[in-house]
Amino acid sequence: MYNVRVPLNFFRSGSIRKNLTFLVFLATLPAFAILFYTSFEHRQQTVANTKEGVAQIVHGMAEHQKEVTRSTQQILTTLSRLPEIRQLNISGTTDILRGLVAQNPQYSNLALVDLNGNILASGKGSSSANLADRAHFQEALRRKEFVVGEFIISRVGVTVPVFPAAIPVLDPEGNPSAVLTLVHKLHSFSSYLDVKDVPEGSFVAVTDNKGVRMYYYPEKKDTNPVGRSIKDKNWALARDAEGPGIFTSEGSDGNKRIFAFEPVNLKPGEPPYIYFWSGIPEKHILVPANNALLKSLLLLSLAMAVAILLAHAIGKRVIIEPLLHLVQLAGQLSKGNLEARCDTHSMVSEFNILSHEFNQMAESLQKTNAKLSTLSLVDGLTNVANRRGFDKKLKEEWHRSLRTKRPISLLMVDIDYFKIFNDTYGHLVGDDCLRTIGLILKTVAHRSIDLPARYGGEEFAVILPETDKQGAYAIAEQIHDQVAQREIPHETSDISRFLTVSIGLATLREAKKIESPIELIKLADEQLYTAKHEGRNKTAGIEVT
Question: Is the pTM of this model over 0.70?
Answer without folding.
Answer: no
